[in-house]
Specification:
heterodimer; A: flat; B: alpha/beta; four-stranded antiparallel beta sheet; 9 helices
């Protein structure tokens, strides 16, 4: 008798061994393979830096210890501000904006998904807002805010420092992005949860506050942190309206001494700020994934 | 005194052009257990969702204690506090402990102090033998335990009636018994319940009235003996033969 799952007519057992080429990467050999590729990669980088014609001048331009040191300390005589001092500006702008963005992003997302008739005009406004500020390049937003608000003659608001306008611009743009992250999170909570809460007689607000939001926040944290990493970097753009933060300080140093080590130092400082955040975010994402895999069995 | 708790009169519900409920009339009296039977898609769940105003109806009337729920002055949140609802998929809140799940409604909807509610919730948990699990999160419990917690969660609101929507359909066969035992226990102590179910022997043993829904039409209603032993309609007979 023959059936669909019969093996092709042959007496020999099927061939189940990996090919010789694949065996190179299996088991203990895998370690050898990964070490070989790492060594090759390092070799290529070193080759470019030390053995090529331009390697030496590249190293002198970007990795000059003398200028790296000046970048860190600044040079008051030549009016070159310290890159390290500049990063302080980036950090406080980031911290302030982070808090504001977390708050406004949530408000906008909340307004967009609640159905209370009272909020109808605000819902429309929130939608338009999110569309506009996700659609305009941040460079333009910062110019419009930085040069626009002072012209409006709004009393104290029109006489703030450029750093404040930078914060306003960052908050405006990033709140729009983050509101979408929140909204996706709020929508990711299963509808049954809402039905259960409403069936208990909880109001729409209480359902949101006690049932939907606490569950949404957990799923939202990794993508939220991702946005914060780019917020950290975009603090550099407030230099466009005249704030001397680290990237602007680096640029001044580079133009004064004709040496790029200032840029390198500024980049290193940014990395010192963002890498812990990226590692932490990845850690959370991995942990969340493991939890979901454990729950799915 | 009139002991009608829930009265549905000629209820019509449409989704787009499809009539899910056609002219359904059903009355639930105090201490009465009514079982809704019928194939999947016959409108059982929709009927329950209309009763607690999760769906708006397109015709007919629903009364709770003689008051029409179609009255524009009705607050659905207040109506739902009188009706405990239990779902097929439990819908416990995963971010809250078992105790907090039970306390959420009384504390946040009824604004009762947590200390009072906690004692009551612990008593309810003791009733289902889960008082030791109060601090745990729902995903640590078995399906049967979760569903029993969901039932006492709705009881914690001290509702006037319970609406149960196929509460054993998502459970392993081995776990169905413990949930049905709890429902039988509740029925014995006089809980008013409207139960959509596929458990025919349970309906036969526990229900005072059995209502058979077929394609949105309430074909037949009566005491379980009559509906199960001497069905008057062919549709009922065909359905019962298929599930037997």
């Amino acid at each position: 008798m023959s059936s669909d799952t019969d093996a092709p007519a042959s007496d020999a057992p099927p061939q189940l061994f990996a090919s010789r080429r694949r065996l190179i990467f299996k088991g203990r050999n895998g370690l050898v393979a990964s070490l070989t590729s790492s060594a090759a990669l390092v070799a290529v980088i070193l080759l470019i830096l030390f053995a090529t014609a331009g390697g030496q001048s590249f190293r002198f331009y970007f990795f000059n210890p003398h200028f790296l040191w000046i970048a860190l300390r600044g040079d008051p005589v030549k009016a070159v501000s310290s890159v390290l001092g500049g990063i302080v500006t980036n950090i406080w702008i980031f911290l302030l904006c982070e808090v504001l963005v977390l708050f406004f992003g949530l408000v906008i997302a909340w307004v967009r998904i609640t159905t209370t008739p009272l909020l109808v005009p605000f819902r429309l406004l929130a939608t338009v807002y999110a569309d506009i500020f996700r659609g305009i390049p941040f460079v333009l937003v910062i110019y419009i805010v930085g040069y626009g608000i002072p012209q409006l003659s709004l009393g104290a608001l029109s006489n703030e420092s450029p750093a404040v306008y930078g914060c306003i611009a960052l908050t405006l743009t990033y709140s729009a992005y983050v509101s979408e992250v929140y909204r996706a999170g709020l929508h990711s909570v299963p509808h049954g949860q809402i039905l259960a809460a409403r069936s208990l007689g909880l109001t729409q607000y209480a359902t949101m506050r006690r049932v939907v939001l606490p569950q949404a926040v957990r799923t939202v944290i990794p993508p939220l942190l991702n946005d914060f990493i780019s917020l950290q970097k975009d603090t550099a753009l407030v230099s466009l309206i005249g704030v001397v933060e680290t990237s602007r300080a680096a640029q001044i140093g580079q133009e004064t001494y004709f040496n790029g080590s200032f840029l390198t130092m500024s980049a290193l400082l940014f990395l010192a700020m963002t890498i812990p955040m990226t590692r932490f975010t990845d850690h959370l994402i991995d942990r969340d994934r493991e939890k979901r895999l454990a729950g799915a069995q | 005194m009139n002991d009608e708790v829930l009265k549905m009169t000629s209820v019509v519900k449409r989704f787009a052009h499809h009539e899910v409920l056609r002219d359904v009339s059903l009355t639930l009296h105090r201490h009465e257990v009514v079982c809704l039977i019928g194939a999947s898609g016959s409108g059982k769940s929709t009927l329950l969702r209309c009763a607690n105003l999760l769906e708006t109806i397109d015709g007919g009337d629903i009364e709770l204690f003689g008051q029409s729920l179609l009255d524009p002055r009705i607050d659905p949140d207040l109506v739902r506090r009188h009706m405990g609802t239990v779902f097929q998929s439990f819908n416990l809140f995963p971010h809250l402990s078992v105790l907090e799940n039970i306390a959420l409604g009384p504390v946040r909807a009824l604004k009762r102090p947590f200390d009072d509610v906690r004692d009551e919730a612990m008593a309810l948990l003791a009733r289902i033998g889960l008082q030791d699990r109060a601090r745990e999160f729902p995903d640590r419990l078995s399906g049967g335990q979760q569903q029993r917690v969901a039932i006492v969660r709705s009881l914690a609101m001290r509702p006037s009636l319970l609406l149960l929507d196929e509460v054993t359909s998502a459970l392993d066969p081995t776990l169905v018994g413990e949930v049905l035992d709890l429902l039988t226990d509740l029925a014995t102590s006089g809980t008013t319940m409207l139960i959509a179910t596929h458990e025919m022997s349970f309906a036969r043993d526990v229900a005072h009235q059995v209502a058979f829904l077929d394609n949105g039409v309430l074909v037949e209603q009566g005491p379980p003996d009559q509906v199960f032993e001497r069905p008057r309609h062919d549709a009922t007979r065909v359905f019962l033969e298929r599930v037997r």
